[in-house]
Design brief:
The strands form two sheets. A five-stranded mixed beta sheet has the order 4-3-5-7-6. It has a two-stranded antiparallel ribbon with strand order 1-2. The chain is elongated. The chain is α/β, with parallel strands linked by helices and 541 residues long. The longest helix is centred in the middle third of the chain and has 33 residues. It folds into two domains: 355 residues, no CATH class; 121 residues.
Amino acid sequence: MKVPKLAVCLLLGALLSIAMGQDISWDIKNYHLYNAWAFLHDRHSLDIAAAGLQTYFNPLPDLPYFYLATGPLQDWPRLLAGLQGLWFGALLFVVVGIANRFATLQGRNPDWTDLCAALVGVTGTMAVSQAGSTSNEVPLAMLVLLGLYLLMPALSTEQFTKPLRRATFAGMACGLAAGLKPTAIVYVPATAIALLLALGIRRRSSWQAVACYGSSALVVFLAVYGPWGWHLYHATGNPIFPLFNHWFESPLTAPSSLTDHRFRPRSVLQWLFYPFYWATRQHNLVTEVYFADPRYAMAMLALLMLAFGKWLRPPAWTADQGRATRFLVTFVVVGYVTWLLLFSILRYAIPLEALTGVVVFHAIRTWAAPRLPSKRWVAVLLVLILGASIYPNWWRGSYREHVIEADLPRLPPQSLVVLAGTPDAYLATLFPDAQTLKFVGITWFTRASQDHGIYEQTARRLKEQAGPIYVVLRDDTANENEMPLLNEMLEGHSTTDCMQIRSSMESGRNKKDYALGLRLCRLVRETPAPQRVQSPAAAQG
């Protein structure tokens, strides 16, 4: 029965992704396409920070989409979107499996309420809005939760078989997620601590299982991220360049962390009760776009109910129920606290979001269900959650003839193209004969690297360029400082022969134009006007 269930989940994910439209988000335009292209064509010695800070992110997770979008599926945009949606289907399958295994550990057969619990989490605002996206948040969440799913049979007294093997495979799944995108690394210690507390901190076998989990996660992480980290270390002196450069002190940029702190809590109340702030419509709090999601607040209430309720009136849990509850609660709590301290970027919390339904339903079933008809409280809960949810728009576009296309001219070989602002780096991959060109980025990261290598290398490349120089511009207030910075590096130049760039990546499904005057101009040196020599007679007159 698992194969048909998996097929249904995958189909649902594919259909959801197709219905949402093609991904034209800021991230794919800024670095997901460029980084894959730069890696495949060994551009790291030719281009300079073309995608700004994100130029140095691991390109490995972006390679499949880039290969398909520019290769065999470039004329099949809907098919490509459907393939991207399979990750969401896999996430749904894994979360349903977790809910069912949790029910089994509670000593009951899984029923329709467990399916509802899984659906509550998987229909969260971040998970759904990221379905089919190239940001890779959904695949990472699926791998992290796959680790939890693999570990859950080890919590059962009757089915306690091969716990070390299960811990090893679970570590491999979580290590793979962290290696592909280090933002998932917060869930590796969360899973390890959850496993240790669930199995018993005083048991030797518990520590053996955690050791197997941790060592396999580390080995896979090093295997996946290690080559890229070594490349960065060899090129910059920082294996996670440019992040946390106050530790590694690469001479290419300033000795600062350069991590995004925009979304961290701003007050004591937010630190304590941040999820309650997300239950109503807002933006620029934990994410850039408008959204509302009550799942996190309800999960926090459920956790408090389980914690204080157990203290006030201990439930009649079996050993398996106690281990399963400790495992689930510890993972969510430790994962949330670690995520809050490091990121507070909500789309990185999809593994937690996907489990909110399981947590809430477990708390209700433990304390309230005996006094409420199950169908009634489930119906009320679903209406409250779905009615209060506002799903964000991460910039989806209409399907065109090709997945990615732009009307860019063929430039002379060895021309230098300046990408003055973000998100423009994807255009580098679309120029005819792009491999004969050189690209440099002029972004806030360039300014942040002033008096350091990135700034100096960029200024030197501009001044020493013998051939033509072109610049990509867009009328965006977020990029208003880039032209002054370019003029600072390349004095005595002005733009001419500007042409509008039409791109399939700049038109949203809501007919909104994201191009904002996107254009390609040529940079020419201004010739000083000849000084007028005044005649002696005029001087005397």
